[in-house]
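Postdoc handover notes: sequence design on the structure in folder B. Input tokens:
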């Protein structure tokens, strides 16, 4: 009886919250939604622009299942609440967006609603895409309509209760979503505004590089301040001008090169970022890449850096460093060099590498266990990769070698324990 009463109380509270959220949502409808479409001066140019925008928005990555037809949907987007499957964006009239018009597409991009008015789950990043202009939305839609039509049914989300109740989206949107296009800052340069527009909008960088709360919402005050990527459990570092944890110490050319090629003289993209570079960022024009780099570097530190946990006692840490030094010489020094400086643009440096010394140890452990694979890009078509050591090294050995590289060549960071390593051993790269 008590359990039933609690369930009823829970549903009653849900109904009240949803009703309040609907009231708030209706009262905050965005007048920009009815912004009319303007016919393009050159239809071919609009389509070409739409292809470019779709690429840098990384649409293909999410809307293409492994081994499936491009943009035909079906890829599972994992969330803490269950899996949501990307929809079919090809112009098939039964299963895709063939019977949509540019107004329908604009509504989805800008307001997070499907053609029939139903609310879209924010796994589709309309919280960022709402910043996109009507002209750019129309260009993307025009290009999508030129794709080969693929008849492939969309899959329903597989969410746990009560998150499978779409009425909850009204509450979520009332808390975490405000439609609105990007507005230029007239006190800034054209390049800065371009970088801000791409970062906040199509780039949807905040979707990964921000801390999310238990309901999947992002506090705008800490956006781009770094955060763990839900479910994937990789750490996306801060994208701001902080010299230690962010991009403040990078050269603009290196930030742009990292996005376009996946490498810099001292670094290489791995994990989820490698997929983003391969499928999206490598297609940026040089001007757009530099604009994004300049904008990011101008941002202040949005939140305090993550804190390190308790360290081992000196004797234990010294023993791990000693054991790790031998393991490093036997397994790592041939590429990363005994000096830890690596080989520029080939093998990343470990000395002075913030990924190595970060208080968030997920990335460095995962790369040692599962390997590090930079993306193949036009600017770096045959990247060097790092083999996985999960099969050849035990948890104790991985902990020792990671602790060593976090404290060699002037690096200074907490020790890593075998328990930390085991936590990520069963979670391979996405």
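Designed sequence:
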């Amino acid at each position: 009886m008590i359990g039933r009463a609690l369930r009823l109380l829970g549903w009653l509270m849900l109904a009240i919250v949803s009703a309040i959220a609907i009231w708030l949502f209706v009262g905050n409808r965005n007048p920009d939604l009815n912004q009319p479409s303007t016919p393009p001066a050159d239809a071919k140019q609009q389509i070409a622009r739409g292809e470019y925008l779709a690429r840098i928005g990384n649409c293909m990555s999410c809307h293409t299942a492994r081994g499936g037809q491009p943009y035909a949907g079906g890829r599972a987007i994992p969330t803490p609440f269950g899996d949501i499957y990307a929809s079919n964006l090809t112009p098939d009239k039964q299963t895709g967006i063939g019977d949509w018009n540019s107004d329908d597409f604009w509504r989805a991009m800008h307001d997070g609603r499907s053609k029939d008015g139903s609310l879209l789950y924010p796994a589709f990043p309309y919280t960022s895409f709402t910043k996109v202009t009507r002209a750019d939305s129309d260009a993307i839609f025009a290009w999508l309509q030129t794709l080969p039509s693929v008849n492939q049914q969309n899959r329903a989300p597989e969410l746990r209760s009560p998150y499978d109740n779409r009425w909850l989206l009204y509450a979520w949107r009332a808390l975490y979503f405000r439609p609105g296009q990007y507005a230029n800052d007239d006190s800034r340069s054209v390049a800065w505004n371009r970088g801000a527009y791409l970062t906040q909008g199509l780039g949807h960088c905040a979707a990964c590089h921000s801390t999310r709360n238990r309901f999947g919402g992002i506090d705008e005050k800490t956006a781009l301040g770094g955060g763990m990527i839900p479910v994937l459990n990789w750490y996306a570092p801060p994208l701001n001008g902080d010299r230690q944890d962010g991009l403040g110490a990078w050269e603009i050319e290196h930030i742009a090169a990292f996005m376009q090629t996946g490498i810099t003289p001292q670094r290489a993209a791995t994990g989820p970022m490698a997929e983003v570079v391969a499928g999206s960022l490598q297609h940026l024009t040089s001007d757009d890449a530099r604009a994004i780099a300049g904008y990011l570097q101008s941002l202040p530190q949005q939140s305090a850096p993550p804190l390190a946990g308790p360290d081992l006692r000196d004797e234990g840490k010294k023993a791990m460093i000693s054991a790790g030094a031998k393991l490093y010489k036997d397994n790592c020094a041939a590429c990363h060099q005994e000096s830890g400086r690596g080989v520029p643009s080939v093998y990343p440096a470990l000395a002075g590498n913030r990924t190595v010394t970060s208080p968030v140890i997920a990335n460095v452990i995962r790369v040692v266990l599962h390997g590090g694979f930079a993306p193949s890009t036009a600017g770096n078509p045959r990247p060097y990769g790092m083999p996985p050591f999960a099969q050849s090294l035990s948890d104790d050995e991985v902990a020792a070698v990671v602790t060593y590289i976090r404290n060699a060549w002037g690096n200074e960071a907490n020790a890593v324990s075998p328990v930390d390593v085991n936590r990520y051993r069963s979670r391979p790269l996405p």
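Context for whoever picks this up: The first strand starts at residue 76 and ends at 79. Don't rerun without checking with the PI first.
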